[in-house]
Amino acid sequence: MNTGGLKAEFYKDVWNTVLRRTASGNYKYESKRDSVLVNAFSIDGGSPKGSFTVTPPEFGSYRVVLTDPKGGSSTQVQFYASGWGFSPWAVENPARIELDLEKKEYMPGETANLQVRAPFSGKLLVTVERDEVYYTETYSIDGNTAAINIPISDKYRPNAYVTATLVRGVKELEPGSAGRAFGAIPINVDRTANKATVEITAPEEIKPLTPLEVGVKTLPGATVTVAVVDEGILQLIDQKTADPFTFFYRKLALEVAAYDTFSLLLPDVSIGLSPAGGGFGARKEMQFLSTQGIRRVKPVAFWSGPLEADGEGNVSYKIDMPQFQGAVRIMAVATRGEEFGSDEKFTKVKSPIVLLPTVPRFFSLNESVIIPVSVRNDTKKDGAITVNMKITGPASVGVIDGAGQKGGSPQSKEAALDVSIPDGGERTVYFTVDTEDVTGALSVNITASGNGESTSSDIDVPVLPDLPAKREEAIGRIDSHKFEVPVASDAYRAGTIKRDLYVSRLPLIQFSGKLDYLLQYPYGCLEQITSRVFPLIYLSDIARKIDPSLFEKADPAVLVQDGIRQIASMQMDGGGFSLWPGGESAEPWASIYAAHFLVEARKAGYFVDDSLYSNAMAYVRDTAKAQQEYSTNELELAVYALYVLSRDGKPDMGTMDFIRDRYKGELTIESKALLGGAYAGSGDASALEQLLKGVNDVEEIARQTGGNFNSTIRNRAILLLAILDLNPDDPRVPALVDRLSRDAQLSQWWTTQESSFALLAIGEFVKKQSEAPPFMGTVTIDGKQVATFKSEKILSLTDIEGDQPIVINMDEEYKDGSAFYTVLTSGTPTPKGFKPVEEGLSVLREFLTRDGAPVDQKNIAQGDLIVVRSKIQSGAGPIENVVIENLLPSGFEVENPRLKTTETLKWATGNTTEPEYMDIRDDRILIFTDLPDAKWYNFYALLRVVNPGTFAVPPVQAEAMYSPNIRFTGKIGEPFEVKLKQ
What we know:
eight-stranded mixed β-sheet, 53 strands
């Protein structure tokens, strides 16, 4: 808006600064401004904007004040005219130099003018530095201001720091004054000139199943990549659009440290940082919020790969949009030499007819599930919409008519309903899906058409068993010319039995089930991730021969590298590792175990980040430090740490000698083996023999469910591994190998620690063992020959279907015991073959209302909230690392897995504890916790009933992960009957 006349006044500010003594005896600068009017003039009104010019008569501090005489409002701007000499300015900090630059950014070859305002005169050192010192110059300042020219080098890109240090003689100091002053200012070099302009053109809205054409305008000849991704996915992971310019030209930190004694003269002031607010805080919270349920759709994610812009800077990219409803983010990144840029744009994908089916995340066997399908008509006119559902897989489909009655032909794979919907209106129709007594996958295709428009939705849903899978392992030597492996067919559901057969001259084949167990282990703590990949470092070739199918999706080397990545994500500040993702403290044994793996992985040629490695080894060195007193666990940890340091080529000989001399009698056999291995790694092979003199086996002990994860089998494998490292021909080796083989035959319930160390030891033995007598043989099933084999190659026969016995026929020259076998059998048990188990653990599961009353399982409505309470008790003393596996009915979804009973459920009583970790999956809640005593402990979760229908209730399970013989499997529950929401 137009204004009246304004008054402009141009002042020079002269500051009078004195040093005053405070009441506490300290000294403090006080500055008072004395303004001198240089010029005053009027500015005519009548224009919304205007300008005027003032010229400082000399260097110093100036101020322009603009006043509206009528309204009384005013504004001002302050600036400083640079120069050499003395000009009073406001001194706030007696040890600080004020620095200013006349430009925000410079190009290489230019000269920057640095304005210096100092609290006193003296000798001035000016530097330009960042990761090193690039430029230095000294000046004598007689006054308190200076104007210094600094040449700009290309080394300063994207930014450097100008620092100034001023000192004066002792004779010039006054009481309480500073003898040194310091200042710094960042200087930006050649940054914005390298920001490439990128502009995306794309339609604001398109329909599903139509092309999306994206255009990008940028620098001619630039390399461009374009990504089109579902915005819901990006929000879920809080993914920002890539911005290479900001990354490469971000402000770099000053890495050169300046030292003097000034900090010893004045106390440090600790400044607390307030939490992030505004947009950053909001964005961090957004990733944990959800405005709608997760839908079973295939993700939309496209990437163009590198594209080259033409002579006018244009790039085009085209995709065929799949069946999808929502918004996609289009992201473009461009680069040319040292120039970078990016842009983003959003396109809505919307059909005139919108389908929103509510399909469970999974189905179970013999269920009848009602599928609500919401249909919206945005075709701009009223009309009749035909909705059709087609099923592929072990299920049939029907409809629910207007009277709420089930209709459709039995065993039908397709059904349809007609519904009248006004423009802009929405209606819900209902289909039924009846699953069969067969597991597998269902493909659900839903279409809606009317008013000349159509849309569809394709959803793949697994059909999971209603009982936990059963797995059996048969291993041993083939000790006859005809060997038969039967199967208890009545224990498994028809069609679910799968068997794997392995035959080899290598005793390692007896441990193939342990390898399969490690690779398929369903949980992911630090120890389990390490155990999964540790044996693959040296057994990858043998493992691939044992079962090629295990590595169809990923090469063993890829699995090892991914394991390193996962372990790195759990490293703590001190170099140790937390047991679970997001943990707050390091787990000692598992941390040393992970460091041991990193040492061996790096030796084998895998990439291990230097920071990850050095921090892990620092933790190991700290753990290995000598102590005056050790507990049993501490002594085991120290010895294992010493062994790992020796494997790293940096043995701690002093601590090794200290422990051997003072604590030899307190060492367990496996710790003696590790300490001897540490000496052997440092060149003293005799120490292992001395420590293990007369030792043939480890002591029989109970499994340790936490701490150092001790067990007889694990410790036996450590002993074997240490002996093999020094002397593969040691007479104790065959006996230990045979004993581990017997361990595997006697119990299939091994821990990940036991399986990993046993595979490491047996794998090392296999590399150094002598050849067994040659043999040949055949495999027959139901009278039909299915395979032949020879001793030179491992027989790996996987996914054998059916329940007929496997017969192994050896040739006439076969010497009994020369071949080893493993048969792994897995499948879904029948109700007859299913047996509840209660061995050392007891679990009670209850389904309750929000008020704490028992749920009427025959009278539940869609949309209800149900509390599931899991109560667990140890009958085997304190147990660490217990997992509770709470399998869910298929029509239910987890609403809140961490109900705080004291805050949310006022009626809840009894002992509760926060889980160590919780894993939420489509069909189950996994709770990982410790049981310190024999009390009952409660865990609560809130479930939402999503679909109507009749649902099986699988049993709840629990297990001590490092003592799998301590376990619980509950009974099959009564089915839930969920009614349609009225």
